[in-house]
Every structure is written in structure tokens, then in C-alpha cells.
Amino acid sequence: MSPLFRRGGDKNPRTGPGDRLVTLIRKPGCHLCDDAQAVIEEVCGELGVPWDQKDIGEDKELYDRYWEQIPVVLVDGEQHTFWRVNADRLRKALTE
């Protein structure tokens, strides 16, 4: 299994938002992906949460799992949302 999916199964308690990880699964030329990235940059920047992005075209496992849902947002390796990202919902997920 990809390390991307293992993080969500950690048993260690998190101490704060900086211990979280947001991952945007996207593809080039996707306007919804650009919109999702803007929300992620805003919320993660505000909370000090690291984030990264993966290109679905460069990872067969991600492609097979998410190709119909792009963009997809993972929080700690678990699917949080797809298509549209709500800033308030993401903020709540990262601070609870």
C-alpha cells in the first residue's frame, strides 16, 4: 500500500494542526483543481498545516481510485472531499 494511505491509520494522537497533512490529488489543466488549491493554500496557511499535491496521471493507484472525483482532498491520508472544497469544513476537520 502506498505511504499516502498509511498515515491515516496512525494510532498516535495528534497535538495540533501542524501535525496534520492535507493532500490535493489533481490533474493538469483542471479549473476545479485550481479552485481547490486556492482554498487549501488559504486554510493550511492560516492554520500552519503542511500540504502537498499529487498528479493523478503520475500514479496508477491514485488514478484507479480517484479518476472520476478529481480534485480529491485527503486529510491524513483519508478522503475528506472531492470536486469542491469548502474552507469552513476543511478548517473544522483540521482543528478538531
From TrEMBL:
Organism superkingdom: Bacteria
Positions of the UniProt region annotated as Disordered: 1-20
Pfam families membership: Glrx-like (PF05768)
InterPro entries in the cross-refs: Glutaredoxin-like (IPR008554), Glutaredoxin-like_YDR286C (IPR052565), Thioredoxin-like_sf (IPR036249)
Protein's name in the database: NrdH-redoxin
Organism: Streptomyces malaysiense
Lineage of producing organism: Bacteria, Bacillati, Actinomycetota, Actinomycetes, Kitasatosporales
